[in-house]
Design goal:
six-stranded mixed beta sheet; 20 helices; single chain; alpha/beta
Length: 666
Amino acid sequence: MSISVNSLKVEFSAKCLFDNISYIINPKDKIALVGKNGAGKSTMLKIIAGLQKPTSGSVSLPNDTTIGYLPQHINVSDTSTVIEEVRSAFGHVDKMRARLDELNTQLATRTDYESESYQELIEAMTSLTDRLAMEESENFEAEIEKTLTGLGFIRSDFNRPTSEFSGGWRMRIELAKLLLTRPDILLLDEPTNHLDIESIQWLENFLITKANAVVLVSHDRAFIDNVTNRTIEISLGKIYDYSVNYSKYLVLRQERLEQQMRAYLNQQKMIQETEDFIERFRYKATKSVQVQSRIKQLAKIERIEVDEVDTSHLNLKFPPAPRSGDYPVIADELGKAYGDHQVFDHATFTIKRGEKVAFVGKNGEGKSTLVKCIMGEIPFTGNLKIGHNVKIGYFAQNQATLLDGDISVFDTIDRVAVGDIRTKIRDILGAFMFGGEASDKKVKVLSGGEKTRLAMIRLLLEPVNLLILDEPTNHLDMKTKDILKQAIKDFNGTVIVVSHDREFLDGLVEKVYEFGGGQVRECLGGIYEFLEKKKLSSLSELERNTHRPLTETTENNRSQVKQSSPTKTTDNTPTTPVTEPRQNSRKPTYAEQREHEKLVRKAKKKVEEAEAEISRLEQSIADIEAIIASGNPPEDIYDRHASTTKHLENAMSLWELASMELDEIS
C-alpha cells in the first residue's frame, strides 16, 4: 500500500515553496524530512495528512489507508481521564463494525451475483472481517498500559483528569492514541520536543519494531539516526531522496554538492573556451563552418545549475562572563513539595565555577522546579547558596511563548535593550538571521525556531556568568543547535542545561544530575557515560530505576533526624530546614511476609504462563512456515500466519507487563 506524491507545487504570496515534487512512500519506509526552518517540512506533512491543499499536484492513497498525524501544537480535550482519552484510540473498531453492518445490508439486497461490483463487495467484506478479527484478538488494555508506561506515565496517572497535566504531557496522550491505532502511515512533527530521554528511547524502539510507514520531522539527530532508513531533503523548492539515515545522508549530500560543483566548473570552462573561439574567428571566412558548428553546439548544451547552499550564518557568541565566586551554586538538603507531593528532597550538591552540567530525568521529577529554586522564584526547604557576584542568565522552557505576538521582531528587542546597545539592534538581529525586512515581521508569524532564536537574543543583551538553559533546543534546526552548542562550549562561565537531546549534550557537559524517585543523584561524565551506567536498555530496567522508594539508602540519606537553624534563600525569604524522617526499621510480621510471598508466587506464575504461551505461539508460527515452504500451502495459510504473529506480539506484551510487575513486587 504505497502512497504517491505527484507533481506537488505550493505557492505562498507569489513565493514557490515546492515545485513539481514527486516521490513514493513505501509500506515500511522510515523517512526523515530534513531542511532548514521554513523549507516546508511541516507543510509537507499537512498535505500528506490531507489538512492542506497544494497549489497543484496531488497525493494518491490506496482505499482504506489510515493516517496518524501528530502536529507540533495541538488542542486536547479536558473532559476525561488519561485512560478514557487513550481508550478512544480504539474508536475505529466501532467504525469498522458499523461499516461491516452496512456491507451486510447491501449484500442482502443484491441479486447481481455475477457482476464485478458484487465481487468487489464480497472482497471488501472479507478484508474488513479479517481486519476486525485481528483487531479484536488483541488485548487492548495491555497495549494501552504498555504504551502509556513507555511514554513516562505511571499507573496512578491513568485515572487522573487530563486537565491536571501540562501541555507536554497532553501531547504524550495524543501520541499514545496515535501509536495504538497502528495507522498505515505515521506523520510525526517534532515528536521528541515533549519527551525525556527514557521516553525517546522507548519511542525509538516502538517505531523501529512495530510501526508501519513513518515520516517524521525532528531536530534530534540521535533519534532520527536510530529510527530512519531514508532521508528526504527539502531545499529551495526541490527534494533530494537518499535511501540512508541522516548521518550517511550528510556525507552523500556533501559528495553530491562537490560533484555538482566540479561538473559546473568544467562546463563553465568549456563554454568559455567555445565562446572565445567563436569571438576570435567570427569574421574569418575560412573558419565560418567551424564557427557555426560551435554556435549550434553551445545552443544545445543543457546548463548545469548548482544548488544554492544556505550561507546564512547565525553568529552566536555569549559575552565574556564576569568572574564569580568559586562555587556559583551550593545546595544542602534541598527539598521542594507541592502539598503532599514531594518533588525531591535531601538534594545536596555543589556546582563549581566554569562547570557545564546537565539536569536529566523524567518530566515531572523536578528539573525545572530546581531551576526555579535557584532563580528564587519559589520557596523551598533546606539550604541553597548562590555564590558571590553570580549573575544569572535564564532561558525558560516556555520562553518563546512568552513573547508578545503583536509587536515586531525589532520592537521585541528594542523594549528590553538599554544604553549603547540600542544603537546596534539592527546589527544584532542581522547576526541572528533577522536582517532586512525580517526585523519588521510580527512575532506571531514567526516559526517555533525563529521565536526561540529571538528569545535567545534577549538572553545575550547583558553579560552573565551562570547560564541556565531549560530545553533550549526545542524548535531549533540542527544547524542552529550546532552553533548554540559551540557557543556554550566557548562560554567561560558556568552552565546548567536541562535537556533531553542526547546529541546536544554529548561532548558539552562533564557532569549529569539525575532526577527521579524524589532524589537528585550526581553522575560524573558525559551523557552517554551516564546512560551506560544506568543501563537504560529496556523498559523493565527503566521501571525499576524510576520507582525506587524515597527511603532507599544513598550517600545523602542519614539515619538520624537532622536539626538546623532557619536559613534564607537568595531572595531573603525565610525557609524551614528539612527535618528528615527516621528510616522505618520495623521488621515485617509473619502475616505480612506470607502475603508478600503469595504475591511473588502469583506474579511468577503469570510470567511462566506468558512464557509458555510465547513458546506455543512460536512453535505454531514455525509449523505454519514449514507448510508455506512445502510449496503447496492452503489458501488461508497467510491469514493464519498474520493472525498468529499478532497473537505472539500480544503475548510478548503481556510477558513484559508480568515481568515488570514481578520486578516491582520483588
